[in-house]
Amino acid sequence: MIFIFTYKIDKTTKLKMLDLQDAKQLFTLLDQSKESLKEWLPFIDSNKSLADTETFIKSTMKQFSENNGFQAGIWSDDKIAGVIGFHQINWNNKSTSIGYWLGKGFEGKGLMTKSVNTFVNHAFTELNLNRVEIRAAVENKKSRAILFQ
Predict the structure, then answer these.
(1) Each residue of 72-98: pLDDT tens digit?
(2) Which of 85, 78, 131 is nearest to 106 (CA)?
(3) pTM for this one?
(4) CATH topology of domain 6-146
(5) Nearest-CA neighbor of 146 among 119, 128, 124?
């Protein structure tokens, strides 16, 4: 049995751990958002088919089963808007880093700010971590703006 969590942030926004049922919607979002994402997400060009997205989701499920973090879909009005996740968790140093992206058409609505705040809070209160890093390219102003809200 696979545990799939859903965390409701507000009336229209939720985080849900990725599962294979999300593959089609996630692939479509990635495909429609390629141009806006490829500057910051080098992997995007290797996501060429639904099977590639399914492979990614399976890797996130493995990550969770190995207690090494997890990835969640960001859902807005029951549509997948992006992904946020812990890259990996260093349990010895009680630290992790967060990665995130939003698809085309979902930016500027506060979805990522709410999602990052939720993940950081979860890291400190539920996972008892001492350090959470977010790294963003100097030129990636949208991603850097999340850190100052």
Answers:
(1) 999 999 999 999 999 999 999 999 999
(2) 78
(3) 0.90
(4) Aminopeptidase (3.40.630)
(5) 119
